Amino acid sequence: MPPRKTILRALAGETLPTPPVWMMRQAGRYLPEYRATRAQAGDFLSLCYNPELAAEVTLQPIRRYGFDAAILFADILLLPQALGADLWFVTGEGPRLSTITSQADFDKLGPVGDIHETLNPIYETVRILRSELPDETTLIGFAGAPWTVATYMIAGRGTPDQAPAHALKNENRAVFEALMDRITEGTIDYLSKQIEAGAEVVKIFDSWAGSLKGDDFRKYALEPARVITAALKAKHPGIPVIGFPREAGDGYIGFAKATGVDCVALDNSVSADWAAKHVQVDGCVQGNLASTHMVTGGQALVDETKAIVRAFSGGPHIFNLGHGITPDADPDNVQRMIDAVRDT
Ligand code: CP3
Known about the structure:
9 strands, alpha/beta, binds coproporphyrinogen III, two-stranded antiparallel ribbon, globular
């Protein structure tokens, strides 16, 4: 028997001498080979829905760097599209969707049972990846968390403070909660199909969890993550789940216990020393180098990488950035980071 994959060992709670490493957005515009394949596909969404090319860009950073995990190339906004929202990307600006601000808008969405018609190419990408990835590389599937997905579906775009979603929550809670429930149900089915196609771990991205406070955090960040995790584990016993309640701050404390996730991904607004003490006590953590180091590089990149590895060395840890790598990053800095992780 070959040794179990390092990421799966860390997720099972093992403290490894060297943490496994991968990077959010590791298939992305900082890589010339990604830009070439994206140009071949035509645009970002065409790339997501083209299984051969989506598998190709997923594999590019694995070939170049030998990361311990590959993350399926797709986007958290494909689920809203599959639920019936219009979706397009404006170059240089980001995603745009039809908005949901009333019961009538919500009623235009389709049933969860219909999502797979749109999402089938994504499951095909997962199948291709499972047959093409090296034996030691873990395949991670993902979806957005209901709150983060809802913020885009309500506002029709990314917003700095998620004000439109907060407004719907406060002024028309019935529609807001119906939307959260629809997304939650869709996410369970979407992730289940990714697992059936070969995803070995799933990650739930709650990029805007930090704007939920107090009871709202409990109801709309913790509770959906708990429901999704429980449903997935009931259907697929043993499937590891990574939760990423970005910028949750003190909300990271107890998150794994409250939701049942196997690992909590940390952004870089919390220090590794703090998180080792308050979050890693409950199990595996992932993170949390500031992605700006991938642009600036130098000795600071090496020092900070080693400091994070050291801070988390007493427990299970998967090395990652605190958020996605940006298009202006230098590909050589990624190699420096990996070298620093692997020879500390
Ligand atoms: O991490 C990975 O490499 C896996 C693939 C992945 C993408 N997006 C590819 C992508 C994942 C996990 C996501 C998640 C995602 N998408 C989130 C949550 C995580 C986060 O970053 O906060 C959100 C909020 C989105 C929605 C979205 N998609 C935005 C805001 C943008 C940025 C638009 C831009 O032009 O920068 C995207 C586009 C996107 N998703 C790109 C990639 C590689 C860039 C697209 C391109 O090639 O032009």
